[in-house]
Every structure is written in C-alpha cells, then in structure tokens.
Write a structure and sequence with these properties.
alpha/beta; Rossmann fold; seven-stranded mixed β-sheet; 8 helices
Length: 255
C-alpha cells in the first residue's frame, strides 16, 4: 500500500507508506474508543508549524516521540512512568491505535497525543530541537535488499531526526532482526550528528533500565530471537560564528 497524497519537503518525492493499515475486526470497546477518545487526542495532518508543548494542557518542558508504537504498550507504560513528559505517538495501523487508546483510557493518561498517520507528515511541522527523545521500537526490518530504502532509520530520515532532537537528546532503536541492527550501526554512528551510546559488549543486548517491553519484543524472545537496544545521542550543535572570538556564546550571538 502506498500514500502519495503529499511530498517530502526536501526531496519533492511522494511520501509512500508500505504496510497494513488495518488487521482483524476490532472489538466493540476499541471501536468505541476510536469514536470517542481518539478525536480528543488526535493530531491532524499539519497545515503549518506545530508547537509540541502546546498540544498538552500541562505544557511539558520535555516531549518524547514514539514512531510506530505498534500495540501501544511501551507508549502507555512510558507515559505512566513520566507524567511530566508529553508523549506523541505515531501509528498508521488502526488496531494498534485501538490498543493504545485502551491503555490510555485505563490509565487515565493525560500526557499522550496520537498522530494516526505516517510520522513523516508530522516531522516537518515540528520545530528544530523540540524533542528530547525519539523511540523507534521493533520497526518493520524490510529484510530484502531491494526494500532497504523503506527502512525508517536510514539516510532519508536521519537528517530530520537530527534536526528534531535537542542537544544531548536520544534516538532509541530496538530490533530483533540482525539485518536491521546491522543497518542501523552502518548508518547512525557515521552520521556527524549522532554518537552511539555504548559502554560495553553487553549493554546494547539489555533493555535500558528505564525501558518497557513490547509485545513484539516478547514474541521475539519466545521465538529465540534476541532483541538489541541501540541508543544514539544527538551531539551538541556548533555555535554560529558571529565575531565574538573563542569565548562567544549562543546567547551573545542573539544580542
């Protein structure tokens, strides 16, 4: 399936989505939440810039994004653990959206907003350095070489992910597929804006202490496929040169 109703702001090429948008029939409870709760939380396709903190009543200082949240377990657990953080979850799969709505409703969560579309429609509308953390948890690996360009982590999206993250912010990627893990390590650490936050041979094989499981992770472990957890830190941006010498500060450049 593809969606060519909009174009990439940088390349001018159509934004295409490959994958399912709906699975088995939804139960009545989830259908009800899609009709009643989703309209309260949904972010429409942007027609202009969006201030992420303004999406939430409590105007959080920190906003985290999860790309393709699947069943929504990780998103709901993170939102529960960090009520001061604003969470944006993006997902096109209707069954997954129904799942996260169930978790939001059960937990009475007020710090989650949903973008029920391809996140690439949303990212250009978000301000530079507006996100503290971006999660990409167990994405479709597209293991065939001819489909490599469909992988979300890669040359096409890394510049935009870099732009959106604050200095010191994190891009977190989890996958149980060796091809996808290898692909990430071939592309992200060599990007000039990212550093791989690894301290030993085993820490990227262990879920971070502040992480939560997903159903895909549990299925992978049950099937004997060990997950890998990659953390990449956004490096500090270089200060603009404005004639102040070595001690020049960013604030001084604005004076």
């Amino acid at each position: 399936m593809s969606d060519a109703s909009a174009s990439d702001a940088k390349t001018g090429e159509p934004i295409r989505f490959y994958g399912r948008r709906k699975g088995k029939p939804l139960k009545a409870t989830r259908l009800h939440l899609l009709d009643t709760l989703l309209p309260q939380l949904a972010i429409p396709k942007p027609a202009g810039p969006i201030a992420p903190a303004a999406l939430f009543a409590h105007a959080p200082e920190r906003v985290w994004l999860e790309v393709g949240f699947g069943g929504g377990e990780h998103l709901a657990d993170q939102a529960t653990a960090h009520p001061d953080v604003g969470f944006i979850g993006s997902e096109v799969f209707l069954n997954g959206i129904g799942g996260v709505l169930k978790g939001i409703d059960a937990g009475k969560l007020t710090n989650v907003r949903i973008f029920p579309e391809d996140v690439r429609f949303l990212m250009p509308a978000l301000p530079t350095a507006s996100l503290e953390r971006i999660y990409v948890m167990f994405p479709d690996p597209w293991p065939k070489s001819r489909h490599a360009k469909r992988r979300f982590i890669g040359p096409a999206n890394l510049p935009e992910l870099s732009r959106l993250l604050r200095d010191g912010g994190e891009l977190r990627v989890a996958s149980d597929h060796p091809i996808y893990v290898r692909w990430c390590l071939q592309h992200v650490p060599v990007h000039p804006d990212f550093a791989w936050a690894v301290t030993g041979p085993d820490d990227w094989r262990q879920r971070p202490a502040d992480g939560f499981p997903t159903r895909y992770e549990q299925k992978a472990i049950a099937a004997g496929r060990p997950p890998h957890y990659l953390r990449f830190v956004r490096k500090a941006r270089a200060l603009p040169h404005c004639g102040g010498g070595a001690a020049q500060t960013a604030s001084a450049c604005l004076d």
